[in-house]
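cron nightly-structures :: item 1 of 1
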Amino acid sequence: METIMQHRTIRKYRDTPIEEELLNKILEAGCRASTTGNMQVYSIVVNREPEMKERLSGCHFNQPMVKKAPVVLTFCADFNRFNQWCRLNNADPGYDNFLSFFTAAIDALLVAQNVCLAAESEGLGICYLGTTTYLAGKIIEVLQLPKGVVPVTTVTVGWPDEDPALVDRLPLEAVVHRETYRDYSADDIARLYFTKEQLPENLKFVAENNKTSLAQVFTDVRYKKADNELFSGMLLEVLKQQGFMNQ
């Protein structure tokens, strides 16, 4: 519980390597995560070599922690291995559809979160990279992922070289619904987001971007409609290329 409540995103790492024994311990803990039907339709690609991290950096908009972290983990939805097992045992796999991708993506994300908690419990720092799905096609090329395998998230891991403050979270009332979903009134929204909007760093963010609200920073700067549509189209093409869009 303490590890969870003290989570911080770490983007700066010391040069100290992560011992293979510790890394394997963390990965094994990750693989104890829940999985659909115990199929384990995921894979984890581990990158330590500077050359490979350099190539991966370009797939993540050259964020510096990709090259600086001692370990980069790419978590993939993976039906390739399971499909091969089925075919070798005279079973006809029917996993060339969106539901199967979604299932495998959930599996991969559950494992990723287990890995992160295990790493943090050992004193390591982590950073999730949301850029993985933006340029999934390029990551597939770099990591030589076969059909049936799609990267869904990337995590950098290393010994922290910074101690950032805890980031804000919405109050429990904003995200928890009892028995049925209770929709929000305008007053609810204003009240639930008030503290976030008034944080000094967010007020500064609004001013620096010449906006009138924090919501506008999200819609007009950080996650723009045009970008969402562009990357959505690219990801759909990747899913087709990797054999997940027959239905």
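cron nightly-structures :: done
The first helix runs from residue 2 to 5.
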